[in-house]
Amino acid sequence: MIAAPPENALTEKALAIHRRLCGVYGCPIPYFHDLDPVSELISSLLSHRTRNADSGRAFKALRARFNDWDSLIEAPTDEVQALISGVTWPELKAPRIQAVLRAVRERAGSLDLAFLRDLPVPEARAWLEAIPGVGPKTSAAVLSFSGLRMPALPVDSHHHRVAQRTGLIGAKVDVGPAHAILRAQLPADWDAQKLYDNHEVLMLHGQRCCFYRNPACGGCAVLDLCPTGQARTGARATRESAALHP
Q1: Which residue from 18, 34, 105, 138 has the highest number of Cβ atoms inside 10 Å of its Cβ?
Q2: Domains along the sequence of the chain with CATH
Q3: Rounded Cα–Cα distance for residues 213 and 66 (Å)
Q4: Average per-residue pLDDT in the chain?
Q5: Taking the chain, what is the end-to-end CA distance rounded to the nearest angstrom?
Q6: Where in the numbering of this chain does the HhH-GPD domain appear (predicted)?
Q7: How far apart are CA 70 and CA 101, in angstroms?
Q8: Structure pTM?
Q9: Of 192, 193, 194, 208, which Cα lies nearest the Cα of 158?
Q10: Going by C-beta distance under 8 Å and a sequence separation of 6 or more, which residues neighbour residue 103?
């Protein structure tokens, strides 16, 4: 078994990858929207295992139908499901969104999460994750992507894939536990923008180069930092050499 690199080596590697990919994708990266935290919560719940375009259309359909999110809670679940039919698993997400919003209202007294801004990030995330159906990715998205602009690090499937292949996390580390591991590798004093940039550049790299199938390792900006890519390109070179020199 190959021993894991020491923590300081992983931190150096994480920072090197961050700097390299920021050079490729252009940091600081503008935030893609500025929703209030409850709206971001709904948007994040819709986005699970769903393309951004489809979850975006579903969110807009909900906003167009309901004057406020309290009305969504009281609406027939079948109606909510029909409005979000373009997302993955609408039959699960419709009742889940209503249940999560109901829990927020019961615990906070209203559908207003602005108070989270006054809490340390770990406490704010714990408050959100105490609600059934809200996991690490959703809690981080609410704090980071919404108008709260808090220093939390979301990890989506693309980000997670790049982190695994570059060796920042182990091959058996799931997305949920990866949040704490990857955040710990970055400076504790990084602000919301820098953590957002880190998520975005790893996500973009997963979307544009480090594909799930057939990653473009030959053109990867961090190939020299990626054992998976080096193994793939080395194996290819060996096969090509064998074909040329039987």
Answers
A1: 138
A2: 37-145 (1.10.340.30)
A3: 40
A4: 93
A5: 33
A6: 46-208
A7: 8
A8: 0.89
A9: 208
A10: 131, 132
pLDDT over 90 (residue 63): yes
Inter-residue contact 120 to 10 (CB < 8 Å)? no
d(CA 85, CA 57): 10
Contacts made by residues 86-94, CB under 8 angstroms, sequence distance 24+: 86/54, 86/57, 86/58, 87/46, 87/47, 87/50, 87/54, 87/55, 87/58, 88/48, 88/49, 88/50, 88/54, 89/48, 89/49, 90/58, 93/45, 93/46, 93/48
DSSP, residue by residue, 131-163: STT--HHHHHHHHHHSTT--------HHHHHHH
Characterise 149 by phi-psi region: left (phi > 0), alpha (psi -120 to 50), beta (else).
left
State which amino acid sits at residue 43. Answer: S
Q: Give me the helix-helix angle, 121-129 and 136-145, nearest 10°.
A: 130
Confidence of residue 235 (pLDDT cuts 50, 70, 90): low
Exposure b/e, 210-237, CB count within 10 A at least 16 = b? beeeebebeebbbbebbebbeebeeeee
How many C-beta atoms lie closer than 10 Å to residue 122's C-beta?
11
Question: Which pLDDT score, from 0 to 100, does residue 239 have?
Answer: 47
Backbone angles phi, psi at 228, to 5 degrees: -65, -45
Q: How confident is the model at residue 236 (pLDDT cuts 50, 70, 90)?
A: low
The per-residue pLDDT for 49 is: 86
Q: Which amino acid is at 13?
A: K
Burial of 129 (0-12, 13-18, 19+ CB in 10 A): middle
**45-81 b/e (C-beta count within 10 Å ≥ 16 → b):** bbbbebeeebbbbbbebbbeebeebeebbebeeeebb
